[in-house]
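Sequence only, no structure available. Ideas?
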Amino acid sequence: MPQQKYWQEMYDLKSHSNYMEEYLHRTEHVDRLIKILLAVASSSSIGAWVVWQQYGFVWGGIIAASQVASAIKPFLPYRSRLKALSGLSHDLEELFIQAEAKWFGVSGGLMAAEEINKLQFDIRLKKQKIYKKHLGNLSLPDKQAYLKVA
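Reply:
I predicted one. C-alpha cells follow.
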C-alpha cells in the first residue's frame, strides 16, 4: 500500500511536470507569434502605404493598431509566465528524477512504510516550495487541452 501511494505521488508529479512543460511551449509559441505579427504589421504596412497610397487609411490603421499592441505588450502576462514556467518545469522535472531514483528502494520493499510515507510527503513539500518559488502570486488559467497532453 505505501508503495502504491508513492507511485501515485510520482505519477502526479510527472503529470504536473508535463503540464507545465506544455504550458511553457504554448506560451512561448503565443509570445513568438505576437512578436512576429507586430514586426510584420509595422514594417510591411509602411512599405505598402508607399506603394498603394490610395489605401493609406488602411495602412495607417494597421500601423496604429500595431503601435497600440506594442504599447500594451509589456502588460500582457506572457513575459512573466515564460520566466516562471521555465524555472518551474525544470525544477519539477529535477524533483521527479530524484523521486524516481528512490523508487527502486520503495518498490523493492527495502524501506519501511514509515520511510516511504516520509519520502512521499517530502515530494509534496518540495513540490509546494517549487510552485511558491516560481509562481508566487502569479496565477495560471487552467488549460484542459494542456492537461490532456500531459
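The helical segments are 2-51, 56-72, 78-107, 113-135, 144-149.
Hope that gets you unstuck.
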